[in-house]
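Recap from last week: sequence in, structure out.
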Amino acid sequence: MLDAVARLARRRSLIVAVSDFIGGGDWERSLLRLTPRHEVVALRVIDAADDELPDAGLIIVEDAETGEQLVVDSGDPLLRARIRAGAGERDARLDAGMSRAGVPLHRISTADDLADSLIEVVTRTHRRRA
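Predicted structure tokens:
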């Protein structure tokens, strides 16, 4: 989508990228292509369930890409620590990538109202430019 915006946006624009920024994809390269010409901000939608495994005992997890399934003990403290560490590493990579691209990153919870969050981000961005 970011590449499509780069092709379509002819005049200088405010571009708000709304995503959970989980998974692959070369979003950093796309953002770097947008930032010289446009004002870009990122709005990361966060769901606590993405970063924390609930203690539900034995569960079946499935790889969304391969369909491979595993039975894991969600109460295993080592597994829970590895998941938290992986989420922390992902967040650090995201923060570093946004910094390299010069894109401010705003975080909102899935419990928050998206429209209110968008208004707040646009208002903050407008104030920063003024």
